[in-house]
Protein backbone atom coordinates (compact mmCIF):
# COMPACT_ATOMS: atom_id res chain seq x y z
CA UNK A 1 0.00 0.00 0.00
CA UNK A 2 1.38 3.31 -1.05
CA UNK A 3 -0.73 6.12 0.43
CA UNK A 4 1.94 8.80 0.10
CA UNK A 5 1.60 11.27 -2.80
CA UNK A 6 4.45 10.94 -5.24
CA UNK A 7 6.66 13.98 -5.63
CA UNK A 8 7.33 15.26 -9.11
CA UNK A 9 4.27 13.53 -10.51
CA UNK A 10 2.39 14.81 -13.54
CA UNK A 11 -0.34 16.35 -11.34
CA UNK A 12 2.17 18.58 -9.53
CA UNK A 13 3.38 20.50 -12.58
CA UNK A 14 2.42 24.14 -12.93
CA UNK A 15 2.69 25.82 -16.30
CA UNK A 16 4.15 29.31 -16.21
CA UNK A 17 4.09 31.11 -19.54
CA UNK A 18 7.16 33.20 -20.26
CA UNK A 19 5.58 34.65 -23.37
CA UNK A 20 2.46 36.66 -24.07
CA UNK A 21 -0.65 34.47 -24.18
CA UNK A 22 -3.31 36.34 -26.19
CA UNK A 23 -6.83 35.57 -24.95
CA UNK A 24 -8.72 37.96 -27.24
CA UNK A 25 -7.80 40.39 -29.96
CA UNK A 26 -9.50 41.90 -32.97
CA UNK A 27 -6.48 44.01 -33.99
CA UNK A 28 -4.76 43.59 -37.32
CA UNK A 29 -1.70 41.35 -37.08
CA UNK A 30 0.88 44.10 -37.53
CA UNK A 31 -0.61 46.33 -34.80
CA UNK A 32 -1.14 43.33 -32.52
CA UNK A 33 2.46 42.16 -32.87
CA UNK A 34 3.76 45.66 -32.18
CA UNK A 35 1.45 46.00 -29.14
CA UNK A 36 2.57 42.62 -27.77
CA UNK A 37 6.21 43.71 -28.09
CA UNK A 38 5.48 46.99 -26.26
CA UNK A 39 3.53 45.19 -23.50
CA UNK A 40 6.21 42.52 -23.06
CA UNK A 41 8.99 45.09 -22.78
CA UNK A 42 7.06 47.24 -20.27
CA UNK A 43 6.03 44.27 -18.10
CA UNK A 44 9.59 42.93 -17.98
CA UNK A 45 11.03 46.37 -17.17
CA UNK A 46 8.45 47.26 -14.51
CA UNK A 47 7.63 43.81 -13.08
CA UNK A 48 6.94 45.21 -9.60
CA UNK A 49 5.07 48.37 -10.63
CA UNK A 50 1.94 47.62 -12.67
CA UNK A 51 0.84 51.25 -12.77
CA UNK A 52 4.12 52.35 -14.36
CA UNK A 53 3.98 49.44 -16.81
CA UNK A 54 0.45 50.45 -17.88
CA UNK A 55 1.48 54.10 -18.24
CA UNK A 56 4.48 53.11 -20.36
CA UNK A 57 2.32 50.97 -22.66
CA UNK A 58 -0.32 53.70 -23.01
CA UNK A 59 2.25 56.37 -23.86
CA UNK A 60 4.04 54.15 -26.39
CA UNK A 61 0.77 53.22 -28.12
CA UNK A 62 -0.37 56.88 -28.16
CA UNK A 63 2.90 57.90 -29.79
CA UNK A 64 2.93 55.08 -32.34
CA UNK A 65 -0.78 54.68 -33.25
CA UNK A 66 -2.44 57.96 -32.24
CA UNK A 67 -4.20 59.13 -29.08
CA UNK A 68 -6.89 57.62 -26.86
CA UNK A 69 -5.24 54.30 -25.93
CA UNK A 70 -5.97 52.87 -22.47
CA UNK A 71 -4.19 50.08 -20.61
CA UNK A 72 -4.81 48.08 -17.43
CA UNK A 73 -2.13 45.82 -15.98
CA UNK A 74 -2.72 43.64 -12.93
CA UNK A 75 -3.85 40.39 -11.37
CA UNK A 76 -7.36 39.25 -10.49
CA UNK A 77 -9.54 41.88 -12.11
CA UNK A 78 -12.57 41.90 -14.38
CA UNK A 79 -13.41 44.45 -17.02
CA UNK A 80 -16.07 45.71 -19.36
CA UNK A 81 -15.02 48.44 -21.78
CA UNK A 82 -16.30 50.28 -24.82
CA UNK A 83 -13.72 50.34 -27.59
CA UNK A 84 -13.23 51.10 -31.24
CA UNK A 85 -13.64 48.04 -33.45
CA UNK A 86 -10.34 46.30 -34.27
CA UNK A 87 -8.59 48.03 -31.35
CA UNK A 88 -8.61 45.71 -28.32
CA UNK A 89 -6.04 43.28 -26.95
CA UNK A 90 -6.44 41.07 -23.87
CA UNK A 91 -3.48 38.93 -22.91
CA UNK A 92 -1.61 37.28 -20.06
CA UNK A 93 2.11 37.60 -19.44
CA UNK A 94 4.29 35.60 -17.07
CA UNK A 95 1.47 33.34 -15.93
CA UNK A 96 -1.10 35.41 -14.05
CA UNK A 97 -0.38 39.01 -15.07
CA UNK A 98 -3.29 40.25 -17.21
CA UNK A 99 -3.09 43.16 -19.62
CA UNK A 100 -6.01 44.86 -21.36
CA UNK A 101 -5.20 47.38 -24.06
CA UNK A 102 -7.88 49.20 -26.01
CA UNK A 103 -8.59 52.38 -27.94
CA UNK A 104 -11.62 54.52 -27.25
CA UNK A 105 -12.10 58.03 -28.59
Automatic annotation (TrEMBL):
It holds the Pfam family Dynein_light. Keywords: Cell projection, Cilium, Cytoplasm, Cytoskeleton, Dynein, Microtubule, Motor protein. CDD domains: DLC-like_DNAL4. It is found in: Cytoplasm, Cytoskeleton, Cilium axoneme. It comes from the Eukaryota. GO terms for cellular component: axoneme; dynein complex; microtubule. One of its GO terms (biological process) is microtubule-based process. The keyword Cytoplasm applies. Force generating protein of respiratory cilia. Produces force towards the minus ends of microtubules. Dynein has ATPase activity. Consists of at least two heavy chains and a number of intermediate and light chains. PANTHER family: DYNEIN AXONEMAL LIGHT CHAIN 4 (PTHR11886:SF2), DYNEIN LIGHT CHAIN (PTHR11886). Belongs to the dynein light chain family. This is Dynein light chain. It comes from Chironomus riparius. The lineage of its organism: Eukaryota, Metazoa, Ecdysozoa, Arthropoda, Hexapoda.
Amino acid sequence: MDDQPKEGGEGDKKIVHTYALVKHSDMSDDIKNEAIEIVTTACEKYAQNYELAAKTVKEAMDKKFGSFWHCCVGEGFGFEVSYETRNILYLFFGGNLAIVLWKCS
